[in-house]
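WARN retry 2 of 3 for item q-0093 after timeout on previous attempt; input resubmitted unchanged.
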Amino acid sequence: MTTNADATPWDGHGDTVPDDGPGETVPEDRLTATADNEGIDAAVAAARRVISALLHAGGNTAAEMADVADRLDAVADYLDGHAPSREDRMVDMWSGEGVTRHDPVTGPENAIAPPLTLTGHPDGSVSGTTTLGMAYQGPPGYAHGGVSALLLDHSLGVANHWAGTSGITARLTLHYRRPTPLFEELTVRARCTAVDGRKIHTEGTIAAGDTTYVTAEGLFIRKFVPLPS
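OK item q-0093 returned
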């Protein structure tokens, strides 16, 4: 696979940099790809159900897990048999719309995405809601700290994009104020707070109601990775 240094650059957070450049906001519908109820999106939604159901069933279930494994392997074999080369798929992933469909936070084509849907607001912030299930568990009944970091890193990057600038993460500092609960609707918020040359400063939170569980401060550098071609 070759890369083209002149290709539209990737900002490191699931978005290609808009052609209108910094200082111009982008439409709300470009912050998060919209899931369809058919095709790959429907199949991925079913895969999320399988992941959740396997964790819920556990090793002591009365279900015939050997049979389940055979059927899941058959599905995987079928998909592998109809998949393009990895190189071609990488090019396909990064072509077209600025908002990608495959990232592990918001992507409707990614079964490990919760998913989180982000919307931009006139005050420059972005926000979205999601509910984390057993697949994201760390301590009993609470989200893994790394999952909180994933949600916030991505959301801070999208907030930069909404503010008209983009870059890759240089430093992400998280403050875990209290454990983040599973099975409860969470609101993730982020906002770009300052731009100093190539340095971009951004803040974010994970909360539910009046309770803030995690806060984050990020430093991003306006540097980009060429897209596959």
